[in-house]
Design goal:
Elements (H helix, E strand, L loop, with lengths): L2 H31 L7 H19 L2 H26 L3 H19 L25 H5 L4 H19 L1 H11 L1 H6 L4 H27 L11 H11 L4 H20 L9 H18 L3 H7 L16
């Protein structure tokens, strides 16, 4: 195997491995842009992965599995949105409860599916793009969920920056008092953004169980939900930087899991720890409020809002 072909394989593996993180991270970015912090991404990814696998196994259709995962995790995110947005419950407590609930449900209901064959997505090279020299085999020869992630990045960036609903959602995260004074339903924007984040986290879970590692095992997300949370901060709440960060972390995951397959004489256990060590460093680096503001955190992130508690 030549150095060029090895590099192409590694880059393609990084794009594929980064897609579940990218989808979940985009969902969390949308929720946080509206001012809602959701630490339950890991639990939602686990629920989405199991739902997608179970429905795909029952129907023989990975598309049905991915759709079911999106619906179920959207409802799951609503369990976080309603108490946090409407009742002012601490989002950290609610998010951690969501992780525990998702982990417990997936472990309990996933036992019958351990070891079962998966009805997985097949690679679907994009005509005209997959043959491009250099980037074609890296970006455009993957399963449809990878393509979806690539399309969502510019779509979310454009929607947040250039459309009226996107701008209003950002105002809800920066200055909800102003949005409310202008007659916009702040609470509904926040609930909708949180549900949209849950849908994307579910698709990230589906990418795990139906594409990246077509199978079901307990704890399949393996911390990717926490990595997605850290990446939102690491990217400064920018979809484009989130994409690069997802590929970076995907590359670390891919090298860790594929080093021996590629003939690389590297300490694989140490490589598998790299994404999680990097996540801890990012969270420590971004732990101070001043630094979070410097990175571009929404001003009202994690702060409940109601007309009775206007500041």
């Amino acid at each position: 195997m030549t150095c060029g072909s090895l590099l192409t394989l590694l880059l393609a593996a990084a794009v594929s491995a980064g897609t579940p993180i990218l989808l979940a991270g985009l969902g969390e970015l949308i929720a946080e842009k509206a001012g809602v912090l959701n630490l339950g991404v890991e639990g939602m990814m686990l629920v989405g992965a199991l739902t997608a696998f179970a429905v795909a196994a029952a129907t023989g259709s990975p598309w049905a599995g991915a759709t079911a995962a999106a619906v179920v995790t959207g409802v799951f995110a609503l369990l976080h949105a309603l108490p946090v947005v409407l009742l002012g419950v601490d989002p950290v407590v609610s998010g951690l409860a969501l992780v525990l609930l998702g982990s417990g449900l997936s472990a309990s209901f996933g036992r019958p599916f351990i070891g079962q064959p998966a009805t997985a997505f097949s690679d679907l090279p994009l005509p005209g793009l997959s043959g491009l020299p250099g980037i074609g085999p890296v970006l455009f020869t993957h399963d449809p969920l990878v393509t979806l992630g690539l399309l969502l990045v510019p779509g979310v960036a454009l929607w947040l920056r250039s459309t009226r609903p996107g701008l209003l959602l950002r105002i809800c995260g920066e200055n909800p008092q102003l949005a409310d004074a202008q007659g916009h339903p702040v609470l509904w924007y926040r609930i909708g953004a949180t549900v949209a984040g849950g849908v994307l986290a579910g698709l990230g879970g589906a990418a795990l169980s139906l594409a990246e590692t077509p199978s079901w095992v307990d704890g399949l997300a393996a911390g990717r939900g926490w990595i997605a949370l850290a990446l939102v901060v690491f990217a400064g709440w920018s979809p484009w930087r989130l994409l690069l960060g997802a590929w970076l972390f995907g590359g670390l995951v891919a090298v860790g899991f594929r080093a021996q397959a590629f003939g690389l004489d590297l300490p694989t256990y140490g490589l598998k720890l790299l994404p999680y060590l990097a996540t801890l460093l990012v969270l420590v680096f971004a732990s101070t409020g001043r630094l979070r503001r410097h990175l571009g955190a929404p001003a009202a992130l994690g702060r409940p809002y109601s007309r009775e508690r206007r500041e």
